[in-house]
Amino acid sequence: MSAAADLIALDRVGMVYEAESGPVVALREVSLRVGRGEFLGLVGPSGCGKSTLLRLIAGLRPHTSGHVSVDGVEVVRPITRVGMVFQAATLLRWRTVLDNVLLPAEMAGLNPGRYRERAHELLHLVGLGEFGRKRPGELSGGMQQRVALCRALLLDPPLLLMDEPFGALDAMTRDELNLELLRIWGESGSERKTIVFVTHSIPEAVFLADRVVVMSPRPGRIAAIRTVELPRPRTIQTRLSPELGRLALELHEALSRPAAAA
Q1: CB 236 within 8 A of CB 174
Q2: Residue 165 pLDDT > 50, yes or no?
Q3: Quick check: bond before 219 cis, omega within 30?
Q4: Deepest of 40, 67, 197, 223, by most Cβ within 10 A of its Cβ?
Q5: What pTM did the predictor assign?
Q6: What is the rounded distance in angstroms from the CA atom of residue 109 to the CA atom of residue 139?
């Protein structure tokens, strides 16, 4: 992958936290490039630094060594053209669904009225067109995550960082939202967003991603990178394919090995 095709570049990135008991090395020597329009899955054991890595890319935490750049610019402060989706939908309970989707425009100092049409379009896109005036408490967990995804997409960022967004949902809702995410991402679109998707589910990562990165236990390093050659568009039948099972098993085995050059 050429440098010009990369949206994200990590070069020997390290992260050290200062704790009461002393320094904690969260990430060590992480080097990775993510192409424009790529769907990258990120898996690894709890505490290996997956979420930390997302925050470094977004500029929400400063890295302590190495270099992080997005779209060719060194990340030294929070970047603006990024959407983030977390495991909890974190919707504001006192606001309507529509007003929750419009929140990024308000926080960016923009006129929310100019984005109402787009907010309505996004809600229709995820099947919530009739729920704009509802409060989050009137929605199921899966519906709330759809609202969180709309909120992340409101300002049309080229980059989506997703941290276990479906991890708290039941299996059927999770499968449904996997397919919804792929549809929104644009299985055949020419201007796909770049997505970095953190999950504890290796089958989920394989089903969604173009490549899957396996991280080692803390201090987090890259233990393996595997390309997913499953054809797109991906469907429910894809989940049952022998190739998905084979690659998922290979990634499970990579998790149990010491970190090595990918």
Answers
A1: no
A2: yes
A3: yes
A4: 197
A5: 0.91
A6: 28
